[in-house]
Design brief:
Elements (H helix, E strand, L loop, with lengths): L13 H5 L5 E5 L5 E5 L9 H5 L13 E6 L12 H11 L3 E8 L2 E7 L21 H8 L5 E5 L1 H11 L5 E6 L7 H7 L8 E5 L2 E6 L2 E2 L3 H9 L22 E5 L14 E5 L2 H10 L4 E4 L2 H4 L16 H11 L1 H8 L1 H15 L1 H10 L1
Length: 363
């Protein structure tokens, strides 16, 4: 049985969560992408997986009604951007609800249920990797029967939870402006044998893969491949969610390039309010934000994924041919020679105060 066309699969795991016989698991293919694998001995060919797949039947989308530039003074110092997701999560938990979002735990980035104020910190920070969903959507479906649920994820994950759960008064969704999903297998190649602690990809505007504030040896390779469109799954380069039609009640991202705004160099979020629920969500946290309504057009130039999918790196095929044979790190060096050379020079310059100052003056 084929659930959807292979290159269209986003790895959202809606099929796994809906299967009445639990005969679908998410396994890695030859490109190290998570895809569904069916146990044919258990499968009853009911077709539930095909009917639920967002790649077969699109989820309802909404055009943003409002665009805001904002930040949360109490949360931004410990958040990747303006701290808006943290405020939304805090509000839901304070109202007796729960949040499903990506956390780092036991060596993996996976979606998990958070319903205590003390654990909200686990949700903070950007995670530049495709999270493991596991049975998350099933758990959302159970929780909405008794309390409010906030789900935060990439657009394909939000589309999936909406498909599995259906229309539900207690479900609130935030989709993120997403560049693309990188395989957890690639992150595994960068993490050391000691994986316990706090994983971060951004800190005070500085991009680096850190574990417990220690920059990992192959941080540059990982982030360079991510930022330059080398390491995403195939479906990301034709993403049906990379436009202004949004699946979340609210869309969150960085308001890159904003001008004439307080704190513009220290972290500003772009907030797109897409539905009536989104309006209620934003209104509920306004007292804890500094915000201004801005023109949507201001957010587009430096957030290209609001207009189009990411573009694959010109040497992506070289990377794909190599990664299964020599591993992620060597495949990056093989396919991104010039970029890696420039990155080494930049590190040398920035490690020397005199050279760094001279570079910044010249630039």
């Amino acid at each position: 049985m084929i659930i959807c066309e292979g290159k269209k699969c986003t790895g959202c795991a809606a099929c796994m969560n809906i299967c009445p016989k639990s005969c679908i698991t998410m396994e890695y293919n030859e490109r190290f992408e998570l895809v569904p694998e069916i146990d044919e001995q258990k499968c009853i060919e009911c077709g539930a997986c095909q009917r639920i797949c967002p790649s077969n039947i699109e989820t309802d989308k909404h055009t943003p009604e409002n665009c805001y530039a904002c930040y949360a003074p109490e949360e931004m110092s410990t958040s990747s951007s303006g701290g808006i997701a943290a405020e939304l999560a805090k509000k839901i938990v304070a109202d007796g609800g729960c949040v499903f979002g990506a956390i780092y735990e036991n060596g993996t980035v996976h979606h998990s249920l958070i319903d205590s104020k003390a654990d909200l910190r686990k949700l903070k920070g950007s995670k530049y990797v495709q999270s493991y969903i596991n049975d998350c959507y099933k758990r959302v479906k159970e929780e909405i029967n008794r309390r409010k649920v906030l789900f935060v994820g990439t657009p394909c994950q939000v589309a999936a939870v909406r498909k599995v759960v259906g229309e539900a008064q207690n479900l609130y969704c935030v989709d993120l402006i997403c560049h693309g999903g990188t395989s957890h297998k690639y992150l595994d190649d960068v993490l050391t044998s000691d994986k316990e602690g706090i994983l971060s990809f951004r800190k005070n505007g500085d991009f680096a893969v850190r574990l417990n504030d220690r920059e990992l040896k192959h941080s540059s390779e990982y982030l360079l491949a991510f930022m330059r469109g080398m390491s995403y799954r195939e479906s990301c380069y034709a993403c049906v969610y990379a436009n202004l039609e949004r699946v979340g009640d609210i869309t969150l991202g960085d308001f890159w390039g904003i001008k004439n705004f307080p704190n513009e160099n220290e972290g500003v979020s772009v907030v797109l309010v897409n539905t009536e629920k989104g309006k209620d969500m934003f209104k509920a946290i306004q007292a804890d934000l500094y915000f201004e309504e801005r023109q949507l057009e201001e957010a587009l130039p430096d957030n290209p994924q609001l207009s189009r999918p990411s573009t694959p790196h010109k040497h992506r095929q070289v990377f794909l041919d190599a990664v299964g044979k020599v591993g992620f790190v060597k495949a990056v060096h093989k396919s991104m020679k010039k970029e890696m050379f420039k990155q080494r020079i930049k590190k040398i310059v920035y490690s020397n105060k005199v050279l760094r100052k001279l570079y910044e003056v010249i630039r």
